[in-house]
Design a protein that fits this description.
The chain is globular. α13 packs parallel to α16. Helix content is 39%, strand content 16%. The chain contains 18 helices and 15 strands. The chain has 2 domains: 144 residues, Rossmann fold, CATH 3.40.50.280; 208 residues, Aldolase class I (TIM Barrel, Alpha-Beta Barrel). The strands form 3 sheets. A 7-stranded mixed β-sheet has the order 2-1-3-4-5-6-7. A 6-stranded parallel β-sheet has the order 8-11-12-13-14-15. The chain is an alpha/beta fold and 456 residues long.
Length: 456
């Protein structure tokens, strides 16, 4: 048996793929994990990363059909629904889909036109089904003879240490890049899930948390060092939830002489100065904090983030003192949020003064409480995402008393007033370490200017 796993293109266009240049391009870690498990099961597998190879949907269909695999699997998010549908229509082989959209909306399987889907962790269920055709496989989604979609309950993998490592050798490693580091990069997870339930979160694993041991993580770092990796983006949703585990990981990295740089994302109230100092010493170069709103009312009562302004100031301050670059995430347009509170968010971002900031507009994704609120309020049709096209206007949530134009104007103001200052421009130029780093930073700067400030 031969399986191809596809990371779909970002656009349906067959001509202008070169115009869709991302700020960063990370390897599809989820597909690499699944490929590792499929390969361990004795099944031949390959990965086609269309964004990395600059392939259009028609390119992917032609390539896959030419290879004549027995099965093709691809990732489906709400944003790529139409792309997944086009792939399922064009690919001759049996098709399988997975990802957050299928997890939360399994009934969309027939709308996409795929043969089967998987909810939740698929590292065990996918290869098991390929070999056995067991219709009781956990997480399996299929349509019965009457066309009714059936969905088995997924079983989260509790022991993450037991998973085969991602099959990174199947990926075009030289194609990936990050504005945070000029070196040879990859991604890694040390845990899955988050015990919190923020209003915008659509993670399949929300309210659950599973973690790898410190030793298991560091063993992977050792392997990545042998493969010549310079920088690892840790993609945990909540890296420092278990602070002692992070300490243990850092100590092991130091003891084993691993000199890979790395970055992570966590909450500002789950760090302290000794931990941050140790992380810096063990190779951490940057840390990302979700701030969301400058209003404590919005952040805690609406978003349910439950973190104070004081804790945020402390987290950013201590991270900077430890010598880490800081990145802050901010969002405009939460339910009941006023225009004044959105302005408060921008002012708060400037006071925190992270090295980098992302300003987003709230978007209701299936599986999130925000999506349920938007549907209940009549702001979004329940089947909106099944009709969404990649070139359509995104369905941002717009609270009462504010217009979408006002929110977009504030977002433009936020990016321009944050980045277009002499201090930020000089700081970014002084941080350039190589010609490759300069190229990535210029690309990132141009995209922010074009898409967020000039709105071209």
């Amino acid at each position: 048996m031969n399986v191809i796993l596809v990371n779909p293109p970002y656009t349906l266009s067959s001509q202008d793929t070169n115009l869709h240049l991302p700020v960063q391009l990370y390897p599809p870690l989820g597909l690499a994990y699944i490929a590792g498990s499929i390969r361990k099961a004795g099944i031949e597998v390959s990965i086609l990363d269309a964004p990395a190879l600059n392939m259009s949907v028609s390119d992917v269909i032609a390539f896959v059909n030419d290879k004549k695999p027995d099965a093709v699997g691809f990732y489906v998010s709400s944003f790529s629904f139409a792309i997944a549908k086009r792939l399922a229509e064009g690919i001759s082989a049996e098709t399988f889909v997975g990802g957050p959209h299928i997890h939360h909306a399994p009934h969309s399987l027939t709308m996409i036109g795929a043969d089967f889907g998987f909810r939740g962790d698929a590292e065990r269920s996918f290869p098991h089904f390929l070999k056995t055709r067991d219709m009781s496989t956990p997480g399996l989604v299929w349509a019965d003879d009457t066309g009714i979609v059936r969905a088995n309950k997924p079983e989260p993998i509790k022991n993450l240490d037991a998973l085969p490592l991602p099959a990174r050798d199947l990926l075009p490693q030289q194609k990936y890049f990050s504005p945070l580091d000029p070196g040879r990069i990859t991604t890694l997870i040390t845990s899955r899930g988050c015990p919190y339930n923020c209003v915008f979160c659509a993670l399949p694993t929300k309210r659950s948390y599973r973690k790898r041991s410190a030793k298991n993580v560091v063993d992977e770092f050792v392997l990545l060092a042998k493969q010549g990796i310079d920088y690892v983006e840790i993609q945990d949703d909540f890296f420092t939830l278990d602070m002692q585990r992070v300490r243990d990981m850092c100590v092991l990295l130091l003891e084993r002489g691993i000199r890979i740089r790395w970055g992570c994302e966590t909450r500002a109230d789950y760090v302290d100065r000794p931990l941050l100092d140790l992380m810096k010493k063990a190779g951490c170069t940057n840390i990302k904090f979700g701030v969301e709103s400058g209003s404590e009312r919005v952040r805690n009562e609406v978003i349910k983030k439950y973190v104070s302004n004081e804790a945020l100031f402390h987290g950013f301050y201590e991270a900077k003192k430890a010598g880490l670059k800081t990145i802050g995430y901010f969002v405009f347009g939460h339910p009941t949020e006023t225009k004044e509170e959105m302005e408060q968010t921008l002012a708060f971002a400037k006071k925190l003064n992270p090295d980098y900031a992302d300003f987003h507009l709230a978007m209701p994704i299936p599986g999130s409480d925000l999506f349920s609120i938007a549907v209940r309020e009549g702001k979004l049709a329940p089947d909106f995402w099944a009709r969404f096209m990649p070139d359509d206007t995104f369905p941002f949530y717009v609270p009462k008393g504010v217009t979408l134009d006002e929110m977009k104007s504030l977002q433009t103001k936020a990016y321009s007033s944050f980045y277009l200052t002499p201090q930020k421009i000089v700081s970014n130029l002084l941080s350039v370490r190589s010609p490759r780093d300069l190229k990535v930073k210029l690309r990132s700067g141009w995209l922010v200017l074009k898409e967020k400030i000039l709105r071209a």
